[in-house]
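Posting for a labmate who doesn't have an account.
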Amino acid sequence: MIIPLVSLVGLWGFAAVITTGESLDLLKVERLYDGLGRPGDTLVLALQREHLLSAEYAATGTRQAFDTLVEQRLVTDRARKDLRRQAATPDVQDALTPAMAGRFSDVMAAVDELDDLRNDIDTKAVGLTALGERFGLLPTAMQALDHTITLNNDVPLYQQSRSLGLLSFAKDFLARESALGAGVLINERPFTVEESRAFIRYSGTRDFLFLQGMKELDPELRKPFEDMLVSDAYRSYIRLETRIVSAAPVSHAAWRRAVDATEKAFRDALLSSEQRLSVRAEPVAVSTFVRTGVAGLLGLVAVVLTLFVSVRLGRALTRELATLRGAARQLAEVRLPRVVERLRRGEKVDVAAEAPALEPPGTTGEVADLAHAFSAVQHTAIDAAVDQARLRESVGLALRNLARRSQGLLQRQLKLLDGMQRRTEDPGTLEELFRLDHLTTRMRRHAEGLIVLSGGTPGRTYRQAVAVAEMLQGAVAEVEDYPRVRIYPMPEVAVQGASVADYIHLFAELIENATTYSPPQTEVSVRGETVAKGFAVEIEDRGLGLGPAELEKINSRLASPPEFDLADTDRLGLVVVGRLATRLGVRVELRQSPFGGTTAIVLIPSSALAPEPVLEGVRA
């Protein structure tokens, strides 16, 4: 099976490298040219004409020049609207790379700046040289965008397209030069020094760009421009340009005739070369997609052959693996969970009986080796589970024994302290004894918490039922910051004596948690009321509270406490609460408090309540 699969991957990789990338690049450039290039070129041509008319209006200020300019502005606005509409389509926007997107932003900024430029022209706030620079912003931005689109493409067609872009940019400098000349000559005045320098700079830049573009064009695409160079219109334009540079007199009418004829010849040459390039691109596109189709067909044939061989070779192997998979699933979903559950209940487990060796389901050597390896794995897994259960049991037993010893000593210490308190009359000594009594009570609670975590029962019991309020007072007495806790009046309801000690421990842990995670100057409120299913106690703090995700996590652990992990020491009190709640059948839930803190709600079931409250003093 390896050989046909490797051949398939190699074939598809080769096909993807030689076809997919080239096809996607071709489609992307085509979308960008249709959505940005064509409408952009149309807008640039209209803008160049508007530049010429704006220069004449800026020089003369006549009504006739303004009316002609307004008509051209309408043409430019239609081209500008068309560019915005086509550029905003999802196909064009998706085809833009980050670099192209930056250049596109420059283009749109230049388009938006046109309104400010027109306002400056109408208010006579811009000169002829500044006019050329500002009208050149959009053509310059379009040239940069076109260059970015074809920059990383080595296809010869794109190289030719870049050359045509240089020639188109040269035409823009021709338009700047023409507009500047028309604006000066229409008033029959000489060029200023600034205007003369700008005119020469435009002329030189145009010649440079023209030569660079012509240098990389192939003969077929170069011919229209060579014809333009020898045309009467271009020669006339160059003669007049030379006269202007040498400060010889030139009439505005002669300059406009030469400008209009040269720009038309230049535009016709660009259009002719672009059409020839477009015709040349069609076979390239067809060839690219043909290669893609051939590669796809060959890939399909390879897939069919691979499937055929794989089915022939893999049918028997599939049956053997299915049998082995069933055995693995049986172990993972039935046998191993059953063993773990028995271990949790403390039952003895025979590893050899629970992990019999798997018989190889067939004759394939690899499958047989896998079956033997799986047998070893399952034996190791069950053996490890047994060892872990024994370790947990021994650790729990050791912790439980140590905690019970501490519990006994602390209980004796409490009795001694109680006797000392009864015999002491000195107020200072009595206060110290009370503080020591309180510390010992808290130590006893921690020892009992360790017993609960290790799976035992604390052992403290009460003979008679105890009122809930009295039981809560006993829980508060086991909390370090007990002065902050306030128990509000509540109905006279009692809890059966057998579970009072566990309830005191549960409430003490919750109240301790509330005082720990709330500001020291705030109150921790304890309220209780009778409800339909028993008696509900609310413990509310004024702390920072918990987020919804953390509340959900804690409530889940309270409802179904996980097995105690010695490495997990965060919020041990809540772990103890979860264990006690499970043992007592009590529902404990944390919620967000309206005051910003956290409210713990404990629902004592009706079955745990005594028929009548019988008060028995709760020893702190």
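Reply:
Got it, the structure tokens are right above this. The longest helix spans residues 252-344.
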